[in-house]
Fold this protein.
Amino acid sequence: MKKYVDLSQISGMQFPFTKTEHSRLSQVDFSHLPFGRIFSDHMFQADFNGKEWENPRVIPYAPLALNPSSAVLHYGQSVFEGMKVYKSDDDELLFFRPLENFKRMQSSSLRMCMPLVPEPIFMNGLRDLVEADASWVPKGDGKSLYIRPVYFATDSVIGVHPSELYTFIIMGSPTGAYYTDELRVSIEKTYSRASRSGTGYAKAAGNYGGALYPTKLAQQRGYNQVIWTDAATNTKVEESGTMNLMFVINDVLVTPVLSPSKLAGITRDSIIKIAQYWGVRVEERDVYVTEVIDAFENGTLQEAFGTGTAANIAPISVIGHEGKDYKVPVSTPDNFSMRALQFLTELKAGRVEDPFGWIVR
Ligand SMILES: *Cc1c(COP(=O)(O)O)cnc(C)c1O
């Protein structure tokens, strides 16, 4: 019935596999999985030696030995990805649009002046890790194995230049369904996440380090996250924390148009395509702060939410702007965002037909 792109024709693992002698699986409480704190037994690693990729392998998850002079620690040549693998009711392991994560890591790497990780290393590494740690993929209720590829510079030279040596790792972390309380977000006009000609579109480590302080200040004022505005004028909304931002205004799905300062979320793209498939009108364009506030005041703002792999969709309940809190209408199950969340969750778990060809087995 369901036909998926299939990565599993090759039986067994492609790369050398060193199995752990001390599986931690039995120690994990799968009913309590705090996000990103527990890691599966193995990791995939491949190294770039300045000329070519070598030694792709699946090995026990373990600390790395790095010289204190390692380039990544000083100058931040480091990019990452975030994706999830689900276990279907029939115990199939299902990825969601993994090639998009691969392509995005290529564009992040280019921006950070890093050699590109070849597709077979990324995709087969992913496949081999998940095969090795299949029993770590939790089943049901939106649970998944969160997959974190990370790629960084390892030259032991303190001098600002592109590194010659690099390490690419993929690790897995079992996660429960991600339930957030509705988010209180604050429109940020003092600090910026990314500028028009900066690195915002790359999933590069430094973008996240720089976001922590303004986020902490917002949290001290009682919000969960900030809404970033454009660095040049602070008049246009861009993203919310590490999620893309969407509104439903007058029955139209409105979302900031992609630009070099925004991260092109795969969830964002998927929600847009689902909306179009359902016949919902979508506008990707500049979205002004004043327009959002006006939509509150004249009652046309119906929904506000963030989109990203971790939460899929996180409803926003309050938007703070210049000392005033605006309450978004409470989300109900027949809202666009809640219907999209339901559909996306079922799609990823293989419970509904995939009309888009997004699921990869
Ligand atoms: C990862 C990320 C997103 C969401 O991207 P997805 O592909 O949907 O997970 C949005 N904004 C930022 C800044 C991100 O880092």
About this structure: The chain has a mean pLDDT of 94.
